[in-house]
């Protein structure tokens, strides 16, 4: 009972960790073997008998009886006179099994045992948590805000597991208070030391895809397939959907009557504007749909360079580009093509690259990013739009405008 009482004192904290008794006893055996190695130099001649039902274990040391004065290894050998103190009929050459009480290890060793046991159980718990969350990578998970740091929000789930939501993986409009429930996907799980680092993301395109699976039955059932998702978190997203069933309108099914189905997803993402697009293998048609709500007049595609020249009526250009260039940028990401927007009747226009002697290349590229690659396309926009849509200073934009105006004044 002495061993049992000590083991119970070691494992009194196990209930907090929800560790089963069989696993606990296996960890205990490992811990005790380490202690025996430290005290006796080896544990090879020790038998540890574990009884998980009783929560007890016994330790037996096996030694060979040798003649008095011939003991070379006191851990493996016992003198005849010492052996006969255990049983008086032992003879030289026989095996002696003697039970080792935990108290025999000494107070300091018992304290070390306890610390080692706690460490091993934490390690076991961390391994279980790591495996649990590793299997959930890419899945939606909900946890509660525990505290808010400058660069991350720390969440706790119902089991007390810590989940990190870094600032860069939040939607820009996200605002959390302690106690709020937060949804996101488990983006990555890594072991740092022995502790699992669980990272959540709300900005990952996969989060939007998983929300579609949760909220739209046809997507969950596999009747509608999500081909690709691209996002500018909190601003705009484009989702290409397809179906093998001709009776289903995939876009209509995803959006719902008056947007009823997609409304909850939009609200979850901080009113992110979501365009749902019918996927097609026809590249021209796919690019046309991707540039919605703009109406495309014609498209010229270069398959080698993966570039597409899209010609639109002047009044459609701003729709194709979108606020801050978001629409054209996402259309390019969705289709895999670099999209250049040209205006109908732009023969008298001049490509911005023609001004490379006066305007630096990186400045021209900033305008190209938002679909403005000719002089007139820049001059048609007001200064405020250009400042808000590019990373250029107002003075730089004004200088460009002055250079372009001179070209047409001549």
Automatic annotation (TrEMBL):
CDD domains: KH-II_NusA_rpt1 (cd02134), KH-II_NusA_rpt2 (cd22529). Its main location: cytoplasm. The keyword Nucleus does not apply. Keywords: Cytoplasm, RNA-binding, Transcription, Transcription antitermination, Transcription regulation, Transcription termination. Residues 233-306, 307-384 form the K Homology domain. GO terms for molecular function: DNA-binding transcription factor activity; RNA binding. It is found in: Cytoplasm. GO terms for cellular component: cytosol. SMART domains: KH. GO terms for biological process: DNA-templated transcription termination; transcription antitermination. Gene3D superfamilies: 3.30.300.20, Nucleic acid-binding proteins, NusA, N-terminal domain. The keyword RNA-binding applies. Participates in both transcription termination and antitermination. PANTHER family: TRANSCRIPTION TERMINATION FACTOR NUSA, TRANSCRIPTION TERMINATION_ANTITERMINATION PROTEIN NUSA. Belongs to the NusA family. Monomer. Binds directly to the core enzyme of the DNA-dependent RNA polymerase and to nascent RNA. This is Transcription termination/antitermination protein NusA. It comes from Halomarinibacterium sedimenti. The lineage of its organism: Bacteria, Pseudomonadati, Bacteroidota, Flavobacteriia, Flavobacteriales. The gene is nusA.
